[in-house]
Amino acid sequence: MPVPVRIPTPLRKLTHNQEVVEVEGQTIRDVIENLEKEYPGLKERICDDENNIRRFVNVFINDEDIRFLRDAATSVKPGDEVSIVPAIAGG
Description:
CATH architecture: Roll
CATH class: Alpha Beta
Radius of gyration: 12 Å
Largest sheet: 5 strands, mixed
CATH superfamily: Beta-grasp domain
Order of helices and strands: EEHHEEE
Low-confidence stretches: none
Number of helices: 2
Number of domains: 1
Distance between the termini: 42 Å
């Protein structure tokens, strides 16, 4: 079953300006892989060369940061909403 994924404004050019897209996946890693299949170029902006989520990209499931769960191995179930949020630095 597909889950909604909220796409941040800087990445929407890759999703044809869609704010929310739906993709299949049992884990966050699956969701990212399927995002890449549907919207090529998205994964390289979310993940580094070692396939880890970049430090400056936050991913949430239902408002919970996956870094405090199981990171990219976090399970996704029907009814969940995934959000990709770039970190904002100030100074």
